[in-house]
Automatic annotation (TrEMBL):
The keyword Hydrolase does not apply. Keywords: ATP-binding, Carbohydrate metabolism, Cobalt, Kinase, Magnesium, Manganese, Metal-binding, Nucleotide-binding, Transferase. This is glucuronokinase. Its cofactor is Mg(2+); Mn(2+); Co(2+). One of its GO terms (molecular function) is glucuronokinase activity. It comes from Dorcoceras hygrometricum. Belongs to the GHMP kinase family. Sugar-1-kinase with a strict substrate specificity for D-glucuronic acid and ATP. Involved in the biosynthesis of UDP-glucuronic acid (UDP-GlcA), providing nucleotide sugars for cell-wall polymers. May be also involved in a salvage pathway for glucuronic acid.
Length: 358
């Protein structure tokens, strides 16, 4: 989404739900993900004399009511906010353009951001900020037609890698493309093309879904680091389980096309059960596990949307089942809401950059 008032450029990027196959995207796997219209980040770029990155009044920790307030906020939100993400994407964008002989004009700008994506809840709040910022840079430097849509998720990921955040491509692909996307990150594609195979799917294939989340920020990099290390060390259990998770997205693609929601129910549950075996309950966190389990106690299918903090739910019993679950979530202190799927926002210029139009 773009707003251009005078010289101001503003872009939104939506939260995303890793629907099937996550987190195998971090491991040359496959996923199906979609953008969630319930939450978004927006970034504003205004031309200015100096290049300025504006700290967010509440998400960047620079001003406090008191010393104890400083400590409380550090304990709940960690040390970092969005400023480092904006700085990192500026660097990655600059270097990519330089390496690819894309000339950038001399003008400077002021970048600021806002977000209503619940912080660090596995809804990809981090990459939403980076994705919206990249979109602003593409327009400010008028290079949207020169940077392929397929390449953009990797630039967004590189900005986070630059900061040492362990993450995968699926969030960024979903946020760049928008809508529902099937993604294949096989080693072969990644090595030959530098990106995966991304196939947009009809959002109408999804059944009504619900979201459960809790104010319980968890650092996705920390959650991922042990499993990632085991995978790098060639751990057979992690390798074979990750392949099973990737297969869930492959099977899920057909299941969605056929609207076979009974099978979808089992795929969603199977996806979380494999994650639980690989990561272990300590890494996933008791509260996150309880969000999955409360849904299952009411006969729904449930799994993490990302690395933890939010859960996507399918209620085979329809609205009456969802209402019972909503009451249970409210009593447990969790937020429960219907999922609004956000369609793709790519424009003609973006589509024109794609090597293969799926
Ligand atoms: N809502 C937010 N506001 C500001 N910065 C954020 C926000 N969410 C994430 N970040 C930044 O991104 C980093 C990585 O967040 P991450 O654990 O990936 O969260 P998410 O699951 O929302 O993507 C954080 O350490 C922080 O620097
Ligand atoms: O573990 C996952 O499912 C995802 O974790 C990260 O996303 P986040 O929203 O930060 O939890 C990671 O970036 C994704 O690639 C994983 O699939
Ligand atoms: Mg993230």
């Amino acid at each position: 989404m773009t707003t251009q008032k005078m010289d101001t450029i503003e872009h939104k990027a939506y939260a995303r739900i890793g629907f099937l196959g996550n987190p195998s995207d971090v491991y040359y796997g496959r996923t199906i993900s979609f953008t969630l219209g319930n939450f978004w980040a927006s970034v504003k770029l205004v031309p200015s004399k100096d290049l300025v990155i504006v700290p967010h009044p509440t998400n960047d920790l620079v001003q406090f009511q008191s010393l104890s307030n400083l400590v409380d906020r550090l304990e709940s939100d960690g040390y970092y906010g969005g400023v480092r993400l904006l700085v990192a994407i500026c660097k990655i964008f600059h270097n990519y353009c330089k390496e690819n002989n894309i000339n950038l004009h001399e003008g400077n700008f002021t970048l600021s951001y806002d977000t209503n994506i619940p912080r660090q809840t596995g809804l990809s709040g981090s990459s939403a900020i980076v994705c919206a910022a990249l979109s602003c840079l593409l327009d400010f430097y008028k290079v949207r037609h020169l940077i392929k849509v397929e390449v953009r998720p990797q630039l967004i990921l590189n900005a986070e890698k630059e900061l040492g955040i362990v993450a995968g491509l699926q969030d960024r692909v979903a946020q760049v493309y928008g809508g529902l996307v099937y993604m294949d990150f096989s080693k072969k594609h990644m090595e030959e093309l530098g990106y995966g195979i991304y196939e947009p799917m009809d959002i109408g294939l999804l059944p009504p879904l619900y979201l459960i989340y809790a104010e319980n920020p968890s650092d996705s990099g920390k959650v991922h680091s042990t499993v990632r290390q085991r995978w790098l060390n060639g751990d057979e259990f992690i390798k074979s389980s990750m392949e099973e998770v990737a297969n869930i997205a492959l099977v899920g693609k057909t299941v969605l096309v056929e609207k076979d929601y009974d099978k979808l129910f089992h795929l969603m549950n199977g996806n979380f059960d494999l994650r639980r075996k690989m990561f272990g309950d300590d890494a996933l966190g008791a509260l996150n596990i309880e969000m999955v389990e409360v849904a299952r106690r009411y006969g729904a299918a449930s799994k993490f949307t990302g690395s933890g903090g939010a859960v996507v739910v399918y209620c085979p019993g329809g609205q009456s089942q969802a209402r019972l679950l909503e009451d249970a979530c409210t009593s447990a202190g969790f937020t429960f809401q219907p999922v609004k799927v956000m369609p793709s926002l790519l424009n003609e210029i973006d589509n024109g950059t794609m090597s293969s139009k799926a």
